[in-house]
Amino acid sequence: MPFLILNLFGVLDAKRSGEDAVKSYAMNSGCSYSIIRPGRLVGGPYTNLDLATLFQVEGGASNGVTVQSGDALLGDCKRDVCAEAVLQCLENRECEDVVFSMHRFRASSATASMTAGVSAAAAAAIFLSYPARMERDHHHDVQYSISRETIQQHTTSNNNIMTAWSSSLLDSNYWLRSNIPTKCEAVNNKKMDTVNNNKTFASNTPATVYGEEEESNSANGRINYYYKRMNPNDVDRTSLMESHAIFGPLWGEGLIERYHVYKRINTNNEHPQIVLQSPRELTVVDLKVGKKLNGHDGIIHGGIISLLFDEAMGWAYECLQQQDQIDSSGMIIVTANLTVNFRAPFLAGSEAVIRVYHNETKGRKIYFSARLESKDGRVVFAEASSLFVLARKDKLRMKER
Ligand SMILES: CCCCC/C=C\C/C=C\C/C=C\C/C=C\CCCC(=O)SCCNC(=O)CCNC(=O)[C@H](O)C(C)(C)COP(=O)(O)OP(=O)(O)OC[C@H]1O[C@@H](n2cnc3c(N)ncnc32)[C@H](O)[C@@H]1OP(=O)(O)O
Known about the structure:
Residues 298-380 form the Thioesterase domain. By secondary structure, the protein is of the alpha+beta class.
């Protein structure tokens, strides 16, 4: 059926924003979610005001269902079957962070390999049989702040290595990331020990990260990089910082509660494409916002989000300058333009990261892009792009007069 008809009155748009809100809430509260996209609901109790209610469409005797990831399925779905699937999702860990559609089983279905004419009670078994087909929303890497986490453990499915971050890692100036939470990280090129590892990260310890998604075509599939904290002394603020929007008046409980800037360090010189890649990631900001920065109740004001982006890009310039050895003597970098797209409500009191990428440099003009996303990368709250211009300091002052 054409999208235009399916989306009459913006029905699908509304559903999409509902799903985004669910994901966003799940991210912010640390719980998981399952999103079920049933076909047209048929069968009792006929509470809808639609044709299926008018004609008391029963939906056939079979309780069998077809499930498939994404939203390609089209058909009816019995209400009681859908309710059963909801219960199964609640009880089944395999259904965590999964999005799938379901409709009534039809023997002629083209999706035969994913189809089973079974009772609704066995629907979960279908999910379990086809986990790989389920749409897991891990569109980015999962990253962990090792500076703040208490002990976290992840078991790998294939080699049974566990990664544990002990409280001794608190206040570390480094940050690791991995695209699959079950893959292991290594420190000093040695795999971390098994359960309850208590190692600390030595100063300037490079971390080896496996399985980096966007750069996985390097020769040995291993990328060496880590993130180093840029502003570790933000508690010890300078007078400059006291008048700075983020570290000054907007800093504190209920306001901007954390704004830790990390620069990305590539350590693998054998693979210069990592450095040359465009857009290349320069900076990650680990942040937390309080509950006094809202526009609508409970939702962070878009202007605040723009500020968070602008600042992150300022720091990204600093990283770029260090890497590319840009000569900026007598110059100052300023934002010439900043475009922000707000994708999902960024809830008050949440934690998130901003990732900043360098897109292009043309003379004095530097183009960045950035994402504000949940820490595990599953929800993008906002995206931004900007032009920063290197301007002569004396020229700026002349304009002031
Ligand atoms: C955080 C503090 C702690 C300190 C720690 C120590 C170290 C910190 C390290 C890092 C720093 C960290 C954070 C930094 C903090 C945050 C960053 C915030 C930055 C800001 O929040 S800063 C305030 C807002 N910002 C302004 O206050 C700018 C006002 N503005 C102007 O001052 C001029 O407008 C200017 C300079 C932009 C241009 O003026 P100009 O005379 O120099 O140059 P001109 O006009 O010739 O433009 C040259 C080429 O840019 C193109 N161009 C210009 N503007 C454009 C636009 N809007 N759109 C598209 N293209 C544009 C032209 O078309 C031309 O292009 P082309 O060369 O191809 O023809």
